[in-house]
Amino acid sequence: MKFLALDTNILIYLCIDEVNTVTSIELEGMKRLLDSGDMKLILSTVVELEFQKRVRECFEHAKRNIRELKKGLKHMVIPSGSNERCRKCAELKSELRKGMRQLYGIIKEFDFEEHLGLIEAILSHQNTIKLGLDNDLLLKGYRRIVEKRAPSHKGDQLNDNIILETVIKYFTDHRITPGQDKAFFVSYDLDGFADKDKQSVHPDLSDELGHLSVKYSPFLAEVLRDEFGLDEIQDEEIQEEQQRLDTFTVHVEPVELPVFPATGIAPPVPGAVLPRFYRAGVTASTSGTSSTWRPPTFMCSCLDTLRENDTE
Q1: Own/partner pairs, 170-175, CB within 8 angstroms, 24+ separation
Q2: Which stretches does DSSP call E strand in the chain?
């Protein structure tokens, strides 16, 4: 069996193309692997929440960019005169304005829900394993922040921590058989998950994933072809994906996670720095529900729970 766990940025990039290198081959291939039962997709609740929020924001941002470019071209200053170069400038400006108007018209009328149809079919597939969020994952996510372990070695990346801990939890509970099964975690977040060479896994994660026989890669196309057998993916597409990481700029903003009914505890507001929670209480609101944080007591309780788990 083949197992594939994806970070949010992979899903977004399969829908929003920044450098004109994305095709539907990866998505269609993943759908066939799921249909045939040859692959299972491991999906964290955090990934799904981030994707549903961020992909629409990216699309609206694309429309704004096109609209601004259209206005900019209208007022763009070019040399005037009767010589060949001036005429060529005028012709090119006219062609650019015409093309931008056409592009804006297409994007304006674009059926985004239809565009997401294939990826929604993948996310809701019977062979997609959706993993929920619980207190244990949250505590382990915070522990990475406190210990400054990847993916939080450069900042407080709670959502990335939870995505990683979800992958670790699944493959701890469902051990794969080396030589028969394959498991990959794919993410474009090189700062969080990759080593300095931007290809291999970060040293903090090497043992954690390695002893579970889970491999990390920043290259989805390469994994799907070389490891999962999608021969229709060509060398050019793999090379383009590798070059893509140099220009990849989609930033996934953290989403506000739900309150846990069992405890009434809500995660902090997105982007907040952990030490601030430790020093002073803040209020986090989710779906109209407020829950006041009492950081010193809460953090001490979290760390006590983690220490108890370590000694068991």
Answers
A1: 170/5, 170/42, 170/129, 170/131, 171/3, 171/212, 171/213, 171/214, 172/212, 175/212
A2: 2-6, 39-44, 128-131, 182-186, 214-217, 283-286, 289-292
| Interatomic CA distance for residues 149 and 139, integer angstroms | 14
Q: Using CA atoms, how far apart are residues 266 and 274, in angstroms rounded to an integer?
A: 14
pLDDT grade for 254, boundaries at 50, 70 and 90 = low
Q: Are 69 and 100 within 8 A, CB to CB?
A: yes
Question: At which residue do the structure tokens 């071209």 appear?
Answer: 73
Q: How many angstroms separate the Cα of 202 from the Cα of each of 11, 21, 147, 191, 300?
A: 22, 27, 15, 9, 29
The dihedral built from the CA positions of residue 64, 65, 70 and 76, taken in this order, carries a sign that is positive
CATH of the domain at 8: 3.40.50
Asked if 267 contacts 291 with a C-beta cutoff of 8 angstroms, the reply is no
Instruction: Answer with the one of 199, 219, 244 that is the final residue of a domain.
Output: 244
- Within a domain: residue 252? no
Q: Which residues contact 177 (CB under 8 A, 6 or more apart)?
A: none
pLDDT of residue 294: 37
- Residue 80's domain spans which residues? 61-112
Task: Tell me, yes or no, whether 204 and 238 share the same domain.
Answer: yes
How does pLDDT run across 205-237, given as a tens digit for each residue?
Answer: 999 999 999 999 999 999 999 999 999 999 988
How does pLDDT run across 145-185, given as a tens digit for each residue? 999 999 999 888 999 999 999 999 999 999 999 889 999 99
The count of residues in the chain is 312
For 270, the 3-state DSSP assignment is coil
How many structural domains is the chain composed of?
A: 3
